[in-house]
What we know:
The protein has 14 helices and ten strands. With about 325 residues, it is of the alpha/beta class. The protein has a domain at about 5-210: TIM Barrel (Alpha-Beta Barrel), CATH 3.20.20. It has an eight-stranded parallel β-sheet with strand order 1-8-7-6-5-4-3-2. Strands 9-10 form a two-stranded antiparallel sheet. The mean pLDDT is about 95. Flavin mononucleotide (FMN) binds near residues 142, 176 and 198.
Amino acid sequence: MKTRITELLGIRHPIIQGGMHFVGYAELAAAVSNAGGLGIITGLTQKTPDKLAAEIERCKGLTDKPFGVNLTFLPMMDAPDYPGLVQAVIEGGVKIVETAGNNPAEYLPALKDAGIKVIHKCTAVRHALKAQKIGCDAASVDGFECGGHPGEDDIPNMILLPRAADELEIPFVASGGMADGRSLVAALALGADGMNMGTRFLATREAPVHDNVKQAIVAASERDTRLIMKPIRNTERVLRNPSVDRVLDIERDRGSDLHFDDIASEVVGVYPRVMLEGQADSGPWSCGMVAGLINDIPTCQELIDRIMTEADGIIRERLANAL
Ligand SMILES: Cc1cc2nc3c(=O)[nH]c(=O)nc-3n(C[C@H](O)[C@H](O)[C@H](O)COP(=O)(O)O)c2cc1C
């Protein structure tokens, strides 16, 4: 399959693995890239430029295919060394960066000068247009279904993707709720040039996280995610568990008086505990509604091959026969 995204990124299949905190290590990124998609290392998980540089080198040892690095720009009190992380990406010879969170304009000149293709992940058409205007090469459009931060507009992909297709000139991938060949064909039909997946890649053999996390996704249905932190406009879609219920109770009690400090004890420091130690109920962690479509833990190669075979069949048979 050839789309503007496969051409832009030099990859075989139009499938990207989005950055995931404490999940997007070299093992997963390399496995996705080796299977013909685009694997992405999560920059902030590495914390320092030196550690990110080492992770990039490790990934190069595991694949000779293109892979990317996610740089999530967050408004944090104790901000990470973003200039240093950007430098590690450039010096590591990485040619693709997925940016997310705040506007990446400050770092674009350095990334572009190094010949890096920048895919900005965003949750609104106006943000995608801004990304296009400041010179991003592509967008990853995250609908309301997505695991992680769906923004505050609450627009699902059935509307968001064709809206993006109507407005954007740069290529874009559909993100949020994508799991299989049906998702890929639907994304293409709605105007996207490929798809980005988070939760689906979390439940693969190579994702270097505790098996409890993968089993929790397999066990979950499409009704098992919740939105937390909406009152403080930092909405996150997470898998429901007792900690998430406690957060929602606090949010209900505090109403419009809610401050981050009220829930900090439930949400801070959760990822290493969940992903590495397997304490899947110990706090809220990002997970998409797409969990309802995930029933197994394949290798990345099996998953991507299955998606492409299924997509091919849908286009050549189901859709062609409908005409
Ligand atoms: C466990 C987990 C952690 C994530 N961490 C990040 C992150 O650090 N930065 C980021 O830009 N997106 C992050 N995301 C969002 C994904 O990259 C992707 O946009 C999203 O999962 C797509 O929706 P889906 O889960 O329905 O496929 C995370 C998603 C999950 C499931």
